[in-house]
Amino acid sequence: MKRFELFEHGADIGVRGLGKTLSQAFENAALAMFSIEVPYIKNIVATCFWQFSCESYDQEGLLTAWLNTLISYADLYRAVFCSFDVTIEDCSLTARVGGVPLNDLQGEKGVEVKGATFTELYVGRRDGIWIAQCVVDV
User: Fold this and answer.
1) Distance between CA 48 and CA 56 in Å, rounded?
2) What pTM, to 2 d.p., does this model score?
3) What is the 3-state secondary structure (H, E, C) of 20-46?
4) CATH at residue 56
5) Are strands 92-101 and 122-126 parallel, antiparallel or unpaired?
6) What tens digit of pLDDT does each residue of 51-76 get?
7) Which of 3, 26, 122, 124 is most buried by its number of CB atoms within 10 A?
């Protein structure tokens, strides 16, 4: 099973995380989002680690809160995140996130992601696979 997909949406890009569990789908949605900025994201090995948390009123809102939290902290720490260990309880999420400083990256850069939106927002199961998707503003 592939971990994520990107899909076109006008001038923006859709991210779709796939997983056997809801947590995996959220992890893979985050990986999809950072693959827009760093196309070779799957080859990066984390050298720094952080703990993040967020919450929302439902699972769809939690996905956008999660992705926007990552965007904010990536900008704050001047890092790219490449590994995610997510725990979800109800509408609260905690995660251990790994990444590397932007200065340590070598190779082609993609486009900057500015924010996760509610466009094409979906969190649920289809054919036994968890899906977490939305469109991100680039």
Assistant:
1) 27
2) 0.96
3) CCHHHHHHHHHHHHHHHHCCCHHHCCC
4) 3.55.10.10
5) unpaired
6) 999 999 999 999 999 999 999 999 99
7) 26
